[in-house]
Amino acid sequence: MTLMERRTPDRRKQVIEAASRSFAAFGYKATTMDQVAKAAGVGKGTIYTFFANKEELFEEILKDLIRELRAVAEETVNHTLPFADNLMQVLQRVLGYRDRHALVAKLSQEVRDLGTPMAKEGLEAVERSIIAYIANHLEEPMAKGEIKRADPQLTAYMMLKMYLALTAEGSHLHAPLSAEEVLAHFRFYCIEGLAVR
Amino acid sequence: MTLMERRTPDRRKQVIEAASRSFAAFGYKATTMDQVAKAAGVGKGTIYTFFANKEELFEEILKDLIRELRAVAEETVNHTLPFADNLMQVLQRVLGYRDRHALVAKLSQEVRDLGTPMAKEGLEAVERSIIAYIANHLEEPMAKGEIKRADPQLTAYMMLKMYLALTAEGSHLHAPLSAEEVLAHFRFYCIEGLAVR
DNA sequence: GAATTGACCGGATTGTTATTTTGGTCAGTT
DNA sequence: AACTGACCAAAATAACAATCCGGTCAATTC
After folding, report:
1. Structural domains of chain B, count
2. How far apart are CA A165 and CA B193, in angstroms?
3. Which end of chain B is more exposed for a tag (fewer CB within 10 A), N or C?
4. A4 pLDDT exceeds 50?
5. CB distance A34 to A47 below 8 Å
6. pLDDT in 10s for each residue of chain B, 197 residues
7. A147 pairs with which residues across the strands?
8. Which residues of the protein are close to the nucleic strand C, CB under 7 angstroms?
């Protein structure tokens, strides 16, 4: 096995890992193919045997990120528990996923500062995928009557927006909230609502 | 009166109105002081007898906008009605306030496309002022037990974010919603919550 | 003489051209 | 057959010139 790895090291994997680090550290635009090749210990041409261009390489990295988030969610969800509990659990785990967030954070900054179209599209793809995932998992509790019936797509969208409002965006209006505060507030505003019962 | 207007036309008002139109039509950066002076039928120097610089002129226009929104809200609110009803009424009126929205829309676009710092600060000022206003008007219904107790500042912030998610931002994910849909969804997500009662 | 004006100034912005960087290729090496 | 890196054209950046615009103030008007 060690010998085999020596003989045929997995170039593709090397490339993906180097690229992943580079995109997270420098963003889309500032990551050069020469750089990735160097970091991967690979000739530049080799990259192009696996990926048609920089764009496709980037999309692969994003797919990995989405896959990973989905996996984290999947292994956290417990279908015997109430919907709200699952939602909270998943959010808590995703919140703690700092390192993987680095790519998202860097891309967000790049969109703000440089406006790189590719970074913007990438973030939108991640966002769409998260919304689709949540929307999917909304249908069961709705059918079961655990939560009210509503357009799952729109509901998932609103959930994400509220989550982001509590974590990322609102930094300049309310002091950064702790993970527990985020969870408590999310439950309060999103699930329970302001109306008295 | 007509004669008096002829004799001492209100230069300050002329300037403010011309500037207001120009900021709404072209944004902060693309509005030049020469242009404003021309449109106001006034020498450029005159502007500087009322406003120290372009920035102050802009801030005055924003103050006017905020004052106007506040006035619309104030004359709509009926303290004998339930909180949720008032909220809906005010939203409905603000939603229909197309002309005044023009300035906000233009500034939003300018922040997106040009990143003009002054436009960004201006929008944030408007946002802060709206949040402060809502927060103020949350305390009474909270005290009366009409809605649940919570940090008014944060609650107001979440309300605005939800409103914006339903109207402005979400254009690329859900088709633009009609005014009625926005109101219905806002009531659903913000007031009632997803939990079944 | 108070209010108003517009030519004028310098710093910022925009347009232009020269230089460098970088995504992608492919002849040659291993 | 897998892999490499010198090479190319196009895109990005830097350097510089030309223009624009916020702000001032001496001259003008009322």
Report:
1. 1
2. 17
3. N
4. no
5. no
6. 333 444 457 899 999 999 999 999 999 999 999 999 999 999 999 999 999 999 999 999 999 999 999 999 999 999 898 888 898 889 888 877 777 789 999 999 999 999 999 999 999 999 999 999 999 999 999 999 999 999 999 999 999 899 889 987 666 677 788 888 888 898 999 899 877 76
7. B195
8. A 30-34, 44-45, 48, 53-55; B 8, 11, 41-46, 48-49
Does A19 reside within a domain? yes
- Which of B124, B153, B191 is the closest to A194 by Cβ? B191
**CATH number of the domain within which B156 lies:** 1.10.357
Residue whose Cα is closest to the C1' of C22: A32
Residue A70 contacts residue A133 (beta carbons within 8 Å): yes
User: Residue A46: its pLDDT value, please?
Assistant: 97
Q: In whole angstroms, what is the distance from residue A60 CA to residue A53 CA?
A: 11
Residue A108 lies in a domain: yes
The verdict on residue A87 lying in a domain is yes
Give the closest residue to A154 by CA, choosing from B157, B91, B188: B188
Distance, CA of B35 to CA of B23 (rounded, Å): 11
Q: Do A190 and B185 touch (CB under 8 A)?
A: no
Calpha distance B181→B189 (Å, rounded): 12
End-to-end alpha-carbon separation of chain B, Å? 64
DSSP A51: -
In a domain, B22, yes or no: no
C-beta of residue B159 within 8 angstroms of C-beta of residue B128 = no
Chain A residues within 8 A of B192 when measuring between CB atoms: 148, 193, 195
Say if residues B36 and B25 touch (Cβ distance below 8 Å). Answer: no
CA distances from B17 to B37, B39, B41, B117, B121 (A): 11, 9, 11, 23, 21
CA distance A44 to A85: 48
Nearest to A188 by CA among B130, B159, B90, B145: B159
Asked if B111 contacts B27 with a C-beta cutoff of 8 angstroms, the reply is no
How many angstroms separate the CA atoms of A16 and B107, rounded? 40
Phi, psi of A195, deg, nearest 5: -65, 140
Structural domain boundaries, residue B155: 54-192
